[in-house]
């Protein structure tokens, strides 16, 4: 039983990271109908910003955190203007290729500036974790889980209760209609990119103390997050969260009880099962119903 | 003057070929070229940088001492991307340059294995750092190893743990790539020979983000000592932290990555008091100390095995070509195999018929973040 609880905690912790990145995927997909393959690099860039401010410049952690997130907002603007905006009237394919290109450019730029050595980033708390009975709770994972819960609530409030959220929803559902109603579609898409960059950055900063800051930290997480969005139902916010958490728990238990070397296999086995038996994901609508 | 068609064709051909001929003649005349496949990008880009540092340090020394066969030596670097297809591509690019006389391959066994068939086809000497014993025991005459192979690391880990620490209940954790699998097998066999077969033999896939299931397996096995073969330092860092967090504090004797510079930095206190076998230990010999000083002076950071083996490889290869008096691959091969009692940064090289230069390991300890030399264990067979 102790074992199960310990595995459950870790599974949810790592799953929450997948969920945060998956959320970024989903928001951009809803707004633009393309998958942003540079989403993982958003996390990586933010983690490196943290290293710049908090480690290299020695600024206080909270200040570095705020500056890094603000930097990510700016980064979202640049990304939108540089990668999406010039191609917005083309089909989805050039945009997807452009995001892949951006992903390669970003990781190699960071490599050129920072070199290949992984960096250490301290966690938010001084205590590494707490022992709760038989279960050890890593403080950074606790923080990640807490932030994920807050974000779920925030997203619900933002998209369902605020005018801006509703405008964003309208844009993602039907751009022409939204535009006819006086909503500035390009502003809405800009806001989506900013929000996704900040979310991805938040995931990167939160997970960096656990996985270390490295060039490939984003891509490993993004692959799982992508699987999580498909499991949850592509384009569904709740689906991304549930898909991420489910994936984290499944692979952790699969590793513990079936096979450690095939840990990544379980995640993708679940993905394949969903693609075959329920391609619309847990929360997705059936494609036929949309027509 | 009237040009016949034949004269015109001949002239055209000569005109086209001349620059190429001149270039190759000039190239052959100017320098001796050594190709190096090394990760510039990918997960091992960090170690790749150190490997280049080590090779360049040796190169500078060789060139300062007059070079090879009276010419300066030049290093041609090609990125292997830390992948198997990457190194095959990198090696074929280098092999296409006919004026390259010998090569440095990878420190990763998986990648050496990937390039090995092409090495036989090319038929020129390739210096390697991969420690999977099979690499030099599969009838490939062109691979020369500048680190002790895992038969020795497994035996040294087992010998040290059983005879020096007096521990008999072993848990083995290893990567499932070629390096980790071979290492885990060698350790398991060595332990069985010493009468202490492992109670747990646990593989894991590289670039895992979480090691909780592995740590819990170690905990449940009731082992009183841990032996590991980790390939990547960030995996090792995550594992080490989670191991301590979940309360496993048994003695730990691991493969060289446990005592590597970046692991020590990443894992911090989680690796205190661990033992590692290290092919390179700065205090193990005068040659190692000299290399350590030169490396620190040049790069302002501590050296480790990632930079030490390319350093030795360039030094011994250059000496061998000089001794052979020619760049003929067979003559270079004979000269490398004839290298005996050569004091290198990694230890004393005594090449055997398989192309293995070293036959033992140092045991070092992480003493509060500082790597200190403990003892050297050598085998004669």
UniProtKB/TrEMBL annotation, chain A:
Gene Ontology annotations for the cellular component aspect, listed alphabetically: plasma membrane
Listed InterPro entries: ABC_transp_permease (IPR001851), BCAA_transport_permease (IPR052157)
Gene Ontology molecular function, alphabetical: transmembrane transporter activity
Transmembrane segments: 6-29, 36-55, 61-85, 92-114, 141-159, 180-199, 238-260, 266-283
Keyword Cell membrane set for record: yes
One Gene Ontology term from the biological process aspect of the record: amino acid transport
Domain of life where this protein originates: Bacteria
Subcellular location, record wording: Cell membrane
Membrane topology, from the record: Multi-pass membrane protein
Short name of one Pfam family: BPD_transp_2
Alphabetically ordered keywords of this record: Amino-acid transport, Cell membrane, Membrane, Transmembrane, Transmembrane helix, Transport
PANTHER family: ABC TRANSPORTER PERMEASE PROTEIN (PTHR11795:SF450), BRANCHED-CHAIN AMINO ACID TRANSPORT SYSTEM PERMEASE PROTEIN LIVH (PTHR11795)
Family: Belongs to the binding-protein-dependent transport system permease family. LivHM subfamily.
Protein name: Branched-chain amino acid ABC transporter permease
Species in which this protein is naturally found: Bradyrhizobium elkanii
